[in-house]
């Protein structure tokens, strides 16, 4: 547990920030060099003292510090304090020339990231370590800075909820349990949640969604979440909710299936965002939709070569049953943009392996029909430290989804897989609705930890969506 005292007493381990220029001027430059401390960005040196306060030196490089640098610095600082059992530390923050409220939020967030752990090992124990940080801000009123810490707390609670949902395996999280947990957690913070079971989904005529879930013993659920709290334009969020994806009759490899409980990364991020917004009582108008199901093999499963209907009325040739997410999104995004008076919509999905080939685990791929809306999202993502890269929106790419026997095919055999998958989803967005598709297949679930992002689920874009929908002032 982390306690943040803003302008608190100066006690405990003392944290010093040094630039390369500071090192050159320092009287004990030789000593620091002998300790291999060169003041490079994020260099950290711990000097314990049994008789007095310990000293911690943190490098700032040439001091062109961004918010994400602050997150990483405090992530490393928190890890060091926990490792060395330093329960109290005083941090005198330099003025980096950026918003003080956002700076303290980034600092607190970095510390919180270090607390997250997901393990089902029977011998593992979650160590409870109470950490007190006396944060001496460079400037700014305490009330505003404290408000920033509270907002960051709410956002990180949403990120951790998203991570927990995505990390849990398919025997724990399946459509029914995902729906139940969502309802329980979100209604606690004032979000309206409605769960549709299979018969109700049939009445909505969501045929593509039902086709994907047709082979599973765990039956599908449609999860609809709403916040109506203000005069802002209404936004829809749609998250891919494949709680397990075997690939269907186009079955995945054994290795490829191991992490397929994470195929609801989009749903996790959407649910986490709604939780964060609800906790902070944000003045927003948002509806979020998750079509939750499993893609399994059985006598009732849909098959490669099938021609299926959709809620919109378009027919789809199923060329690959492992291109299932876009089919569930087709009905979900059509439902969201046609049944609610939304001006814009964002869908998030662990949709394609192609995006991993193109952008690795560093960037989320995007497709959009509105550059202005995309620029808003990009600004929110920059504050969050979450990277997004837009693929070209080109009518010629749409032709790659053409079918000889149906209105559209669910895969293309001519490359550009991330773009064509996104454009497939875009065909089901209501006309004149601003739309952004985010392919998070590389960023929602990491193969290894990097910086403050853990291995496995990251909770990607909870922060970005919060910043977009409820912008943080300074």
From TrEMBL:
Q: Which UniProt keywords apply?
A: Aminopeptidase, Cytoplasm, Hydrolase, Manganese, Metal-binding, Protease
Q: Which cofactor does it need?
A: Mn(2+)
Record's protein name: Probable cytosol aminopeptidase
* Co-factor: note: Binds 2 manganese ions per subunit.
CDD domains assigned: Peptidase_M17
- List, in alphabetical order, the Gene Ontology terms for molecular function in this entry: aminopeptidase activity
Q: Which Gene3D superfamilies match?
A: Leucine Aminopeptidase, subunit E, domain 1 (3.40.220.10), Zn peptidases (3.40.630.10)
Q: Which gene encodes it?
A: pepA
* EC supergroup of this enzyme: hydrolase
Q: Where does Mn(2+) 2 bind?
A: 240, 245, 263, 324
Q: Which reaction does it catalyse?
A: Release of an N-terminal amino acid, preferentially leucine, but not glutamic or aspartic acids; Release of an N-terminal amino acid, Xaa-|-Yaa-, in which Xaa is preferably Leu, but may be other amino acids including Pro although not Arg or Lys, and Yaa may be Pro. Amino acid amides and methyl esters are also readily hydrolyzed, but rates on arylamides are exceedingly low
Q: Domain Cytosol aminopeptidase: where?
A: 320-327
Q: Which domain of life is it from?
A: Bacteria
Family assignment?
Belongs to the peptidase M17 family.
Subcellular location(s): the record lists:
Cytoplasm
Q: Which InterPro entries does this chain map to?
A: Leucine_aapep/pepB (IPR011356), Macro_dom-like (IPR043472), Peptidase_M17_C (IPR000819), Peptidase_M17_leu_NH2_pept (IPR023042)
- The EC number(s) given in the record are 3.4.11.1, 3.4.11.10
The UniProt entry annotates the active site at 252, 326
Protein function: Presumably involved in the processing and regular turnover of intracellular proteins. Catalyzes the removal of unsubstituted N-terminal amino acids from various peptides.
């Amino acid at each position: 547990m982390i306690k943040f005292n803003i302008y608190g007493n100066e006690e405990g381990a003392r944290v010093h920030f040094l630039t390369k220029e500071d090192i050159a001027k320092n009287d004990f430059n030789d000593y620091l060099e002998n300790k291999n401390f060169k003041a490079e960005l994020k260099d950290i040196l711990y000097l314990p003292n049994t008789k007095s306060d310990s000293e911690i030196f943190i490098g700032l490089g040439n001091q062109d510090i961004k918010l994400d640098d602050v997150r990483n610095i405090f992530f490393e600082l928190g890890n060091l304090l926990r490792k060395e059992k330093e329960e109290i530390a005083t941090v005198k923050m330099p003025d980096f020339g950026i918003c003080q409220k956002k700076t303290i939020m980034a600092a607190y967030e970095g510390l919180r990231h270090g607390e997250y752990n997901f393990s089902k090992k029977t011998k593992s124990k979650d160590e409870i370590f109470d950490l007190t940080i006396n944060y001496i801000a460079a400037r700014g009123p305490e009330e505003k800075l404290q408000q920033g810490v509270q907002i960051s707390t709410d956002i990180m609670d949403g990120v951790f909820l998203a991570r927990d949902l995505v990390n849990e395996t398919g025997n724990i999280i399946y459509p029914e349990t995902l729906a139940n947990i969502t309802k329980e957690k979100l209604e606690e913070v004032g979000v309206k949640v409605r769960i549709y079971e299979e018969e109700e989904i049939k009445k909505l005529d969501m045929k593509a969604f039902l086709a994907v879930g047709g082979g599973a013993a765990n039956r599908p659920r449609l999860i609809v979440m709403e916040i109506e709290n203000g005069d802002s334009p209404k936004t829809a969020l749609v998250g891919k909710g494949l709680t397990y994806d075997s690939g269907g009759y186009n079955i995945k490899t054994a290795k490829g299936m191991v992490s397929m409980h994470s195929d609801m990364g989009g749903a996790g991020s959407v649910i986490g965002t709604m939780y964060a917004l609800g906790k902070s009582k944000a003045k927003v108008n948002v509806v979020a939709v998750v079509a939750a199901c499993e893609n399994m093999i059985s006598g009732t499963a849909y098959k490669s070569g099938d021609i299926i209907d959709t809620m919109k009325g378009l027919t789809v040739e199923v060329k690959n049953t492992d291109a299932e997410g876009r089919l569930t999104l087709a009905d979900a995004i059509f439902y969201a943009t046609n049944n609610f008076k939304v001006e814009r919509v964002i869908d998030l999905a662990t949709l394609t392996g192609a995006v991993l080939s193109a952008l690795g685990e560093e960037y989320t791929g995007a497709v959009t029909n509105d550059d202005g809306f995309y620029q808003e999202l990009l600004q929110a993502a920059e504050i969050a430290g979450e990277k997004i890269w837009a693929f070209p929106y080109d009518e010629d790419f749409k032709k790659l989804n053409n079918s000889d026997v149906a209105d559209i095919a669910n895969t293309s055999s001519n490359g550009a897989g991330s773009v064509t998958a996104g454009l497939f989803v875009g065909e089901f967005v209501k006309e004149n609705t601003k739309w952004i598709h985010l392919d998070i297949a590389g960023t929602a679930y990491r193969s290894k930890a990097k910086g403050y992002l853990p291995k496995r689920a990251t909770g990607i874009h909870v922060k970005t969506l919060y910043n977009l929908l409820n912008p943080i002032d300074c």
